[in-house]
Amino acid sequence: MITKMKKTLLFMAHPTNDMQDDLTALGRLGLMHISPFQPAKDESIERVQSRIEQLEKAISILDNCDDTDATSSVKVDDYTHQERGEIALLERVLETNRTNKELQKQIAELSKDKQWYDSWGNISLDDIKIINSNGIFLKLYEIPEKDLKDIRTQENVQIVGQSNRVAQVVLLSEDKEAALNYHPIELPGNSQKEVEQALNDKTAKLSSGKQLLLQLSAQRELLENALDERKRRLKVRTVQYGGIAFHEKVRCWEGYVPESKVSDVTEAADKNGWGYVVSDPQPDDYDSVPTLLHNPKWTDKIKPVMNFMGLVPGYDEIDVSKIFLVFFTFFTGILVGDAGYGLIFFALTLLAHWKSGFVKKIEFGLFYTLSVSIMLWGVLTGTYFGAETLANIPFLKQLQVSQLASFGGDNLRIQQFMFLIGAVHLSIGHIQKGLKYINTVLVIAQVGWVAIVWGLYFMVNKMVLAIPAPEFMPWLFIGGAILVALFSSPGQPLLKGILSSLGNLPLNVINGFSDVISYIRLYAVGLSTVLMASSFNDMAIGDGITTIASGALAVVVLILGHALNMALAAMAVLVHGVRLNMLEYSGHANVEFSGSEYNPFKINKI
């Protein structure tokens, strides 16, 4: 259920030396969701944000420091006992990292020069300069071997080496502008000896720099504490400058507090000398009131799905968590519908859970639940890796529901069952909406909609499946339409309300018809999963296994085929399982997920 909120205006003296302390006290209380009056802007905020970025970068550098090239220990200062030691440590880490980055660039350039000498040999740059000064100009080329026949006849061209189908060619000419029709090879800027010496020096310095970072990483906690403190300051200052100042004497904030926690906030206000005004949110405020859900523990399993899709019901909407979880679990079982796949999903979840040390996480609970649902539906339909042979094992066959069986079942009844699920699901949405207005005549209109939904169910059965409709079906539409027309607009004059409701009714009924039909996707996707699994089985072992090679190929086809099928089934759960809850059901429950999550201003106690 959605927790009731109280709108709260909070006043603090401003400016005072104690404002930081007051806001810190409010943050440590951690109960007030603050809606800023204005964007928080101040130079102090920009400075803190900049420092946070630097600290995060420094911590990341220390996390990723590499000790593979570190050869010796480097003595470093102990910054933990220095005044503003975290800043000195921060600057040392960033400066060392900058130096290391520059050394890496220089080493890369020197390595290219070394490769040049390794390829062309110990060529003296001074000798080349002397030759050039005497009027003979030397140019180097690397030419594909297939082109050598075109230049071998030239007297001023010498081939000095060949490797990997590329020839090294030297052009000697008294004409400075003479050139071959190829891109010349540039000479290094330093001699081979200078390159090797510089490379050794730079490599040694880089190794020392890496060792320095490795030594500094022992004081990483100092940076982490500084980062936590700066984040606390940023929270405080963001809240501070998001409030409105009156005559530079009082600053005010608007926010929302859970009804059950209002007394904690007012007691803290009285203790610290804050002013406050507490009131009930008005309908005009509902768009800005945050949503705090309070449900039984078992419903937490649906939170990962809701968070992934960004689904938060509005403050004035109904909480659909319980129904969403129940039907999402049910839909997952039908959409995948293979007990073998469910067992694999369960085993993979168990393995991941074991590797995490069996840490308590909602995600693991969700995956266990979905895996069990898949296995149960697979058992009821007799589906085990899409193999009919396994389904016909006597023990397993006894567990099947014959009408629902994937092999030899009654497809007509299965489709009818899917439409039945849809009618029940949509009816629950209207019932929940009616319970929201239990003290008004709007609940009667929702009773009318439930009647219309069941009329649509019978109509769909007749039109799609050719199942005869009961004689009372027209009365479901007639009675439902009358109730909807009379009680959907209680705040308007009777005639105007009836005409308004009747005007919207045809389109709403058509939408309801398509919503009921859309539940056939459960049957279609579930059937496709079975057919694909069966097809991969036929591809792998349809003609039997006669040789070791055919056996190995069959194993590969089975593994890859079923892996692909499981991946597609998992995608179908996200697409269709979520859609039926988020659109069809939520549309009938009038839930638009237009809310924002309750996120109080909170500072952890140190």
UniProtKB/TrEMBL annotation:
Membrane topology: Multi-pass membrane protein
Span of the signal peptide: none
Keywords: Ion transport, Membrane, Transmembrane, Transmembrane helix, Transport
Biological process terms in GO annotation: vacuolar acidification
A GO MF term: proton-transporting ATPase activity, rotational mechanism
Entry's transmembrane regions: 323-352, 364-387, 414-431, 438-460, 472-495, 548-575
Subcellular location per the Swiss-Prot or TrEMBL entry: Membrane
Major location category of this protein: membrane
GO cellular component labels: proton-transporting V-type ATPase, V0 domain; vacuolar proton-transporting V-type ATPase complex
Family designation: Belongs to the V-ATPase 116 kDa subunit family.
Cited PANTHER family: V-TYPE PROTON ATPASE SUBUNIT A, VACUOLAR PROTON ATPASES
Protein name per its UniProtKB record: V/A-type H+-transporting ATPase subunit I
